[in-house]
């Protein structure tokens, strides 16, 4: 006797060539065939598409798929047609004649699946919604449903209008599908799309075939080249923060013998299409893209995704790295990051036009990503924990498992911080709690009388920067969380109790303990003598300071004193971290002026490298 799922299993074997369904696919398809709505969370490469493609082929009418990216819908339609499935799309890349043929096929009941962008569906001038109301609809699948979240990493304004589908197509099963949604985003999807009665299928986030590696930056582009040389001939994606860096990185890789193409929103649509076609159809092509611009390409054999800069959040990172290894074969997610990345991303948030609530959420998500970068334990377990999924043991397939970082017993530091958070009522963020720990006499400390707390000043042996590293790791390990709804307050989790009772110990990265304190003032020879070879750099530093002062409308010494410029000359800092250690350089000035002076020093050092004698040509 044939069961309700036997036709679905036949399609799976005969049309798509798979012997059996993956976990949850059967249950999702069974629910949709019964006419139920569904919220589907399944990792990239886990088989989300089949969950609506097969029911659309079995139910009467045409299945409508809402997809945010033209490239992605074109890929899926092309793949379906190769399987003999009657599928089409309507989008702006088509000619008028092509759109008319597709509309005619739709009205004639010839299509199993139709792919649309949300803006075309909701645009009254296109007449698409009215057209769909005149035909039989098998189901409506809303792909990349996380785009509906205004707090998320990939918000699309048009997705907010998709709640009208409930009014126009009552009784038609609707599926919201995504690979990237924490618990808050899932709730928002359900509310905004009016899917309160939907069955929920959470298949997990783990991509066991992906190896995660994160490291601090070690020079401009050197780490990336070393990584890629061991993977010559493999297809991959390299993400950079800016279009300018995308272009420069792609050019450098081409000069080093790689088949590399730039891809960003500043290119014409024709240039991007050519890049996509090359990437899809050729072996060993590397696409260098901006983090903000989605690839939208369903290429199964991407062997690596490399981030040369920090993405904006763990959600964005997970989404972008998920483009690697869709075929289930071993793949790599590799990233380098530095302090300047954090500074730039914070500036982007601060300077955006979003309201303060959105900015606070974005800052919190950036902080969570930085904390994840700095953890000493299994990266996979921490990544899955962020999405609310428990991973029982070390994965053995991340850098921390394969090459454990040097650590020290940071139990006491963690206890000091957690105790301070408790005594302050768990109502304050990291910056204020660190002020209390370090015994700083600030207006906020006095206003809340926190100078009377027993934890006031007990952490004066560590710098603010060291304490921030402690806090990030404690949060990453799950002993505290940042409550975005309480303005970034740090709140203890149940895991903190045994740690506070000394029933548990924790290890922190050794950099926290070994981070060098600021240099104490020391006597300098008088009068100060400058080597002749240092004169060009000295003048360049003074010129840079004058320019910045004129732009800011302040005297030059307000930018940096001569003593600080001399420190630059002596130490030749090459990174924001090394500059921050020098006399006269604080975090605020580093963020405002540090990059300009680092460029001047780098240019001078480059000139010295070109002529080892130091003599002018």
Quick recap:
It is built from 28 helices and 17 strands.
Please name the defining characteristics of this protein.
Arc Repressor Mutant, subunit A; six-stranded parallel β-sheet; 617 residues; alpha/beta; Rossmann fold; single chain; 17 strands; 4 domains
Structure description:
The structure is a single chain. The chain is built from 28 helices and 17 strands. It is α/β, with parallel strands linked by helices and 617 residues long. It has four domains: 6-202, Rossmann fold; 210-402, P-loop containing nucleotide triphosphate hydrolases (Rossmann fold); 407-514, Arc Repressor Mutant, subunit A (Orthogonal Bundle), CATH 1.10.10.10; 532-610, Orthogonal Bundle (DNA polymerase, domain 1). Strand 12 (304-307), helix 13 (314-321) and strand 13 form a beta-alpha-beta unit. Helix 1 (6-14) packs across helix 3 (50-58), helix 15 (356-374) crosses helix 21 and helix 24 crosses helix 26 (562-571). It is globular, with a radius of gyration of 28 Å. Mean pLDDT is 85; it is low at 514-527 and 611-617.
Helix content range: 40-55%
CATH architecture of the largest domain: 3-Layer(aba) Sandwich
What's the CATH H-level homologous superfamily of the largest domain? P-loop containing nucleotide triphosphate hydrolases
Q: Write out the strand line-up for the largest beta sheet, numbering strands in chain order.
A: 3-4-2-5-6-1-7
Number of helices: 28
- CATH fold node name of the largest domain: Rossmann fold
Give the overall average pLDDT.
85
N→C terminal distance: 90 Å
* Largest beta-sheet characterization: 7 strands, parallel
